[in-house]
Amino acid sequence: MKNIIIANWKMNNSFDEAESWLESFNEKISNEENLPDIVVCPPAILIDYMDELLLNSELEALENKGNNIDELEEKEIEKLAAKIRKVQIGGQDCHAQINGAFTGDISAKTLKDAGCNYVILGHSERRQYHFESDETVNAKVKTALENNLMPILCIGESLEIREENKYLDFIKKQIDGSIPQNIEIENLIIAYEPIWSIGTGKIPSIAQIDEMANFIKDEVEKNKNIKVKNSKILYGGSTNSKNAKEIMAVKNISGMLVGGASLKADEFSQMAKLSF
Predict the structure, then answer these.
(1) Which residues span the domain enclosing 21?
(2) Contact, 78 vs 62, CB < 8 A?
(3) What would the pLDDT profile of 66-118 be if each residue is shown by its tens digit?
(4) Model's pTM, two decimal places?
(5) Pick the catalytic residue: 58, 123, 125, 157?
(6) Which residues pair with 6 in a beta bridge?
(7) 5 contacts 258 by C-beta, under 8 angstroms
(8) How many domains does the chain have?
(9) Can 95 be counted among the known catalytic residues?
(10) What CATH number did the domain enclosing 169 receive?
(11) 248-251, long-range: CB within 8 Å, 24+ apart, which pairs?
(12) 37-41/87-91 β-pairing
């Protein structure tokens, strides 16, 4: 599995801003061969629009390479476009149920139909502002897997828990509670985001990130009830192009979940180049 860098736009960017961002970002990475997997998670209303923008740029690229698109069937075109796509789309959340009377929520199936291959689950802002428990997150992860979405499972402790030296027990509890047990999971992304670092400019030391990456890896592997075949551990929390290279050098870190810095195409493209 390649390294991966994920942009979490949260509740930011309009249709025009999303289009401008994609144009700028594609221009900056167009000649790059060594790139990680790149995922952008925009607000839900932008997902289908961004997928269409990406497809249009891919069709143009295929035609420039001599492919006669008009003679191909839709499925053939989609396969060719998928092979050259450098930016994947992800959702910022999904409901544990596929459908129902859940005003304002979004279904994993709908995300998949709209062009998503990934979905962020259990982000600290969802846990805090929407009171999501480990049990809730667990159910969402299972639903995402059942609908062929790669879960990006977020875990992380508050400053209070860190200072009380209870963070390892807390993270263990989140891992055990948020990952569905006794089911075969082919691929899972776990993003460690210490709550005290998100958007604050404060970042753990490299030694602290290394400790957490090793701990998370060990906890997932030694729990006999967690059956994850392939996992990646990402770091998130006040990441930017200045600290990306150092973070990516940590042994068990395979990528980054990027918040504020991902809203700037130039900044995010620099981080992508440093994440290979």
Answers:
(1) 4-274
(2) no
(3) 888 878 888 888 888 888 999 999 999 999 999 999 999 999 999 999 999 99
(4) 0.96
(5) 123
(6) 39, 257
(7) yes
(8) 1
(9) no
(10) 3.20.20.70
(11) 248/3, 248/274, 248/275, 249/206, 250/206, 250/209, 250/210, 250/213, 251/210, 251/213, 251/214
(12) parallel
